[in-house]
Amino acid sequence: MKNFKRIAALAGVVILLLIFCLPMAFAWGSSENAQALFRGAFAAAVLVPIVAYVFWMAYRIWGNKKPREDENRMIENIIFDVGNVLMGYDWEEYLRSYDFPEEKYQKIADAVFRNPIWEEQDRGQHEESWYVDKFVESAPEYEADIREVVRRDPECMHLYDYAETWVKYLKNQGYHLYVLSNYGTYMLDRTKQDMSFLKYMDGVVFSCDVQQIKPEVDIYKTLLKRYSLKPEKSVFLDDRAVNCEGAGKAGIHTIQFENLKQAAKALEKLGVK
C-alpha cells in the first residue's frame, strides 16, 4: 500500500510538471494557433493545481478517514463484559417463566442463582455436574426442577440488537477491543456461537479459561499482561459496580454500564467517539 502511494505521488508530480511545461512549449511554437494554445495551457497550469487542492481539502474534511492507531488518545483499548452489556441475562425473568409457586421459586433461587456456588462456578475448577450437585444439596426436595433449570439456563441469554453494530463501529474508529467476562464452561459452550461480536475483538478472557473471576484483581492483570495493555489507556465496561471496582484497582478506567446511550456518553467523556 505504501509503495502504491509513493508511485501515485510521483506520477502526480510528473503530470503537474508536464502541465507547467506546456505553456512554454506552445509559446515557442510558430503555428497560427500557438498563442491560443499557450493561453489554454497556461490556464490549465494554473487551474489544475487549484482544482486538485480543492478536491484534496474536500476529502480531508468529508472523506471517510480512519483515525490512525498512533494518535495521542487518552483511551486506546475498550474492554467489555458480556452479560447485561453485550448480551442480556436475567435469571429472575427466566426462573419466573417456570411459573413455580412463590415459596418454591424463592427456594430454587436461593439454591441456585443466589447461592455463592453460582458465581464460583465461573472459575471453572470442577465439572458442571459437581456444581449442579451442590445446588441440589441446598434444596434436595426440588432436585428434578433444579437440574432442569440449570440444564436450560443458557436459553435465557440473548444478543442485544445493538451489540455487533456498536463494537464494529468502535473497531472502525481504530480502537482495540477486548472481552473480559465471568463465564462458566457449560454456559460458554452453549452460548458462544451467538456472540457475533467476538470477530471484532483483539483478545478475549473468559473466567473459566483462566480459573480466575471478577472482581479479583488477578483476572484484570491477566488480560493486561496477555495483550500487553496499558491500564491507563484502557476502559472497562461492566454492569456491576463491584466488577468496576476490581478493574479500578488494576488501574483501568471504568464505566458501570446501564444502557447503550449512557455508556456512549461516558465513553465520549473519555474521548471515545
Automatic annotation (TrEMBL):
GO terms for molecular function: hydrolase activity. The keyword Membrane applies. It holds the Pfam family Hydrolase. The chain crosses the membrane at residues 37-59. Its EC number is 3.1.3.-. Keywords: Hydrolase, Membrane, Transmembrane, Transmembrane helix. This is Alpha-D-glucose-1-phosphate phosphatase YihX. It comes from Blautia luti.
